[in-house]
Amino acid sequence: MEKITTLIFIGATFAFAQTRTYDLLLQGGHVIDAKNNIDAVRDVAIKDGKIAAVAARIDPAQAFKVVNAAGLYVTPGLIDIHVHVYTGTGEPRSYAGDNSLYPDGYTFRVGVTTVADAGCAGWRNFEDFKQRVIDRAKTRVLAFINIVGNGMRGAKYENDLSDMQAKPTAEMAEKYKGLIVGVKTAHYAGPEWTPVEQAVEAGTIANIPVMVDFGENKKERPMSELVTRKLRPGDIYTHCYSGLRNEQDESGHVNPAMFEARKRGVISDVGHGGGSFAWRIAVPALKQGFPPDSISTDIHIGSMNSGMKDMDNLMSKFLVMGQSLKDVVTESTWNPAREIHHEELGNLSVGSIADVAVLRVARGDFGYTDMYGARLKGNQKIIAELTLKDGKVVYDLNGITRPDWTTLPKDYRQSGDAKWDAITPARGGRGQAAKQ
Amino acid sequence: MRFLTPLLALACSLKGQTYDTLLKGAHVIDPKNGIDRVMDVAISGGKIARVAAGINSSEAKQTVDVTGLYVTPGLIDIHVHIYMWQEPGGEAVQADAHSFRSGVTTMVDAGSSGSRTFPDFKRRIIDHSKTRVLAFLNIVGAGMGTGKEDDPSEMDAQAAAKTAKDNPDIIVGFKSAHYAGPGWESVGGAVKAGELTGLPVMVDFGRVNATRNINALFLDKLRPGDIYTHCFSGHREELLENGTVNPAMEAGRKRGIIFDIGHGAGSFYWYVAVPAYAAHFYPDSISSDLHINSMNAGMKDMTNIMSKLMSLGSSLQDVVRMSTFNAAKEIRRPLLGNLDVGSDADVAVLRLDRGNFGFVDSAGARKSGNQLLVCELTLRAGKVVWDLNGRASQDWKTFPYQKQSWKR
Lengths: 436, 408
Hints:
Shape of chain A: globular
Helix content of chain B: 10-25%
Strand order of the largest sheet of chain B: 8-9-10-11-12-13-14
CATH topology of the largest domain in chain A: TIM Barrel
Distance between the termini of chain A: 30 Å
Oligomer: heterodimer
Structural class of chain A: alpha/beta
Order of helices and strands of chain B: EEEEEEEEEHEHEHEHEHEHHHHEEEE
CATH architecture of the largest domain in chain A: Alpha-Beta Barrel
Number of domains of chain A: 2
Structural class of chain B: alpha/beta
Number of helices of chain A: 12
CATH class of the domain at 74-330 in chain B: Alpha Beta
Shape of chain B: globular
CATH architecture of the domain at 74-330 in chain B: Alpha-Beta Barrel
Strand content of chain A: 25-35%
CATH superfamily of the largest domain in chain A: Metal-dependent hydrolases
Radius of gyration of chain B: 22 Å
Distance between the termini of chain B: 9 Å
Largest sheet of chain B: 7 strands, parallel
């Protein structure tokens, strides 16, 4: 009898499953999708890792798994285009080493699904970086390749003009087209334009943008000339609110060159990091009509424990400075996707990759600190509740996708399904593996 | 990009300012000293200088208002995996990327390295971490995840004991883990190393069989003070078929065996923990079994596990004790896990949120709870190393900004 019931049940489930069009339905969340100009409550359906439908109401009976997202914001998976993730080499005090972080340790838990490493590796060590970190991460890891062949290994390497060569850099970028999304120049302390010029040449050959950390402020190569003459439209000026290179003039105004650069199409990116974001620069800049094009963390072992913390904390800073949630999300999704020429990401168009963040905006008394340790108080904070990558749950803060344990069989070992869950079906855990 | 020295030095070293930092107005929970009420904590020279009610702010260079929060000893997580190999692969994470943000100031690596790999672990990771890193040494010379964990010839108690004796400031015991063989070589080797050094053993009991079971482990093989981690995994008959707690657990506890959580990605299930709590069988210590998978699954971090146990009925005082004083005793580090005057000022400042929260176990099953611990502030040797809401900072409008130039 029991067997027959089971068979009928399986049969019914099979027949039922046949009629279900979608793997996962996020129901009732407020969707923010800049590309498609959506800023309203919508249901989002996912099938085979792609966005399958976005509509005011999608029949839940058509979905294998339904998740209630009412009261939450559903956005494209966040894209952080300035991170440092070339770690594990054992090199101390190096961004091709101990200063970098493993990406999966801080991405999914804050709604980030795609990161771009900002120049930790150059053409000499990019393939080591690739097989060591990029190929093993669950996070989608892209990269700006450093114009310095040795990458970001320290001052000795990063000031060596002879190791800044456009040609081999461009060759490596073309070999890994799509994975290498740009060329980085950073931390240069000399008076020459060589690093920028070589990076732009490499970017021109490979048809990718250049991201500039402009290093030491030198009168021989002023920031104004960089952004209005040297860089091309689409190139990226990161650390735009650091105030370290005259982004703000003596009178407290945004340097007119910044506005001129924006008109030319040069991108201004946040790149907060441990030493590149000050309230005294950012607050006036936003008031004077100079918001960022893209929000990025410059996360590394130092910045994640100081004022920057993580992508959600950084987005919250812009929210409490007065930007709308829609703008902040746009600056963290669709804008960076376009900047790195990955327009299949950062949006919820039907057919796009189903990388999704589900965010909560908490109300309360919060404090946010800048690079100097100065605090700005605010009453909003963005918190990632749920993260999907390729249509599957990779992080779930409060278990909103999960069944209550009392509803499961007495010695349950899993509760998800590979159709929508990347956490539990794949996990046995060491102990369990040992038992089996 | 670059980490600029925060200009927090409030340049007011007036006479009479005895303390560097004063944490004022919080509810202090210091299980060792039996403190469980509102008190102020003063810090000087990286040490706890005074714990008392009503310490005057004028006595401190910097006062941090922590009213409404809980001040506890820095949390001690006795089961983590932070030995990132130089060769690609493995599940280890960086200590500093996960410790301070959840109030943890001391991490104990649970056997990622063995006697042959410990020097590399020490040189590359331990010596470069801001987190206080201690270690259980794997009885397997090659260490964990190396494919040699079932090889008895790797289990050299003499070599392990020697490495421990050479590194008494770091190695707190030995780990036996993941052993799938039928015998007692792994546990036996670890216990022998423990006997040679007077240090405890932590056991992940691997695969069990008819004779290699927890009853024999607790009653015959382990010594009082040895640690059974993954205690609510249910993988090794901690819970019997009939849903009751295996009497071996209580018998082991009576002998002095320590029961540790070791949550990880696959070692904590509600269907084990709930009946255990119903039978008044509580863990001695909370530990995370932190690695790259557990942190993105149900485990997340130490404060999340502490909150989970509160949803099962533990009090805040209980979970703080399990994560500080008890853990310190288990690894025999009496100077840690308390706020004794003169001890290193490793301090966690926690906020207890009320609301509707969900906690997920290793199968992805959810249990709701209405309390969540959040780490607001972490101090390591008296220095602020994590400050979620800038409580130790000054408002930017009055902040003494100084023109700063770019520095590496």
